[in-house]
Amino acid sequence: MTREEVEAVVDEMEIDGVEQREGNAVPEGFNANYLQVYYGKLFPHADMFKWMSYGNDGKHLGCDHSYFGRREFSFTLDNDIYLRFQSFNSVSELENSIREKCPVKIDIGPVYSVDPAKRRAYAQTGDNVFTPVERELIFDIDITDYDDVRYCCSGADVCLDCWPLMTVAIKVIDTALRDDFGFNHILWVFSGRRGVHCWVCDEKARRLTNEQRAAIADYFRVYKGNENSQKKVSLIGPALHPFLARSYTEVLRNFFETKLLSSQNLFSSEERYEKILDLIPDESVASELRGKWQDNRRSSNSKDDISVTRWEQLKHLLQSGNKKAQGLRRCVEEIVFSYTYPRLDMEVSKHMNHLLKAPFCVHPKTGRVCVPIDPSQCEEFDPTTVPTLSQLLEELNIGGMKADADNDWDRTSLGKSIRFFRTSFLQPLLKSCKEDIENSYSAKLQHSKNSISW
């Protein structure tokens, strides 16, 4: 679709309105016409190209100009057609294909040893040359995996009472990636509906083997239970691992006690507190608490938060002098970890060839854009106010006469997200990539000189 055709679609929406609510309002929903305008005017094609090129789109002699062309893109079309192994050699090829095919979802895969679109030709040679050689370290966290500890929502639904579980996950994982592994270029993205994605883009992260990725994923592995097991976290040893101790003292404990207890009313009913009592290995302790709470239910008129009160009673009993047996020493911590610790989709992180939805896609169910999240201000992120496709088109209509806007997205609420992506993530990343390319090239030259002089 040409720019003129895109503008014609916008003009048609402004004129005909398709049952417009008022003024320039665009009806809620998700359809191909909306996406055509979005990809034509708002989607940051050039920024995505620069990101996925990692500095290899420049004129420096050390650039690998085949790099971007070996990256796999996958398109899911409106009629459920799934196009894998798409590849492009320039930003114009990428943009033209996205505008033409208008995918409802774009997924990004690894960089392969050869152009993925030509993989069949290489396969005919008999050599196994088509293999992934580089890929960001990625993490996928979904709120549906917390359904056993949230009572406000379930499934794909999310609200401001349960979304903070995602905020906690960002805090814990981001801190560890930076402090424990030394990664610097990390992008957190709202999935568009019910979770978050993390892209670790440092060169050393992109070049990790599957075995190394699995080792990092296992570093974060604490929540090991399944839907059929009662106790899903076991903290063994005389002391917590420093990473777990930091996560507990700096994030998890405070969140559990000041927010989750009350927002999810974790002890408000017998069914809910029984799930917590099941995590106590000493049945006599669990029985004592059960009896106290059942008696309290029949006689108490206290206006205090019952979940907070019962949690303090549980802690007091488990941590009192005569209860500090080996089996109970970690019980309070295990309960907090069971309810708050990040629940990762481990397989996503372990394998280099896994696909992940691209930032700035539009979720077809909610219509919300997959916008970046600032990890340093993730507590302020509200998934319910993320721009929707129809909202952005409405803003384009209203802001159509603004002469001071440098880009179309500057006239919409998407502008803030694109500016953050550029200034806080992309620019520092590309600066680092340029330095890496120049240093690598200089090292090769020096090595060549040393070989000749020898």
Describe this structure in words.
The structure is a single chain. Strand 1 (71-76) and strand 2 (82-86) form a beta hairpin. This protein has helices at residues 3-16, 32-41, 45-53, 91-101, 119-123, 164-179, 203-206, 210-219, 242-263, 270-277, 283-299, 306-319, 331-340, 346-350, 389-398, 415-453, and strands spanning 71-76, 82-86, 105-112, 132-134, 137-142, 186-190, 195-200, 356-357, 372-373. 45% of the residues lie in helices and 9% in strands. Strands 1, 2, 3, 4 and 8 form a 5-stranded antiparallel beta sheet that branches. A 4-stranded antiparallel beta sheet has the order 5-7-6-9, with helices on both faces. The protein contains 16 helices and 9 strands. By secondary structure, it is an alpha+beta fold. It has 2 domains: 32-223 and 343-447, DNA primase, PRIM domain, CATH 3.90.920.10; 242-340, no CATH class. Belongs to the eukaryotic-type primase small subunit family. Pfam families: DNA_primase_S. Its cofactor is Mg(2+); Mn(2+). InterPro entries: DNA_primase_S, DNA_primase_ssu_euk/arc.
Q: Mean of residue pLDDT?
A: 87
Distance between the ends? 59 Å
User: Biggest sheet: strands, sense, closure?
Assistant: 5 strands, antiparallel
SSE string: HHHEEHEHEEHEEHHHHHHHHEEHH
User: What are the segments in which pLDDT stays under 50 over at least 5 consecutive residues?
Assistant: 1-23
Total beta strands = 9
Q: What's the CATH architecture name of the largest domain?
A: Alpha-Beta Complex
- Helix fraction bin: 40-55%
Strand proportion, as a percent range, falls in 5-15%
Can you count the helices? 16
CATH 4th-level superfamily of the largest domain: DNA primase, PRIM domain
CATH class of the largest domain: Alpha Beta
CATH topology of the largest domain: DNA primase, PRIM domain
Protein name: DNA primase
Family: Belongs to the eukaryotic-type primase small subunit family.
InterPro entries: DNA_primase_S, DNA_primase_ssu_euk/arc
Organism: Cannabis sativa (Hemp)
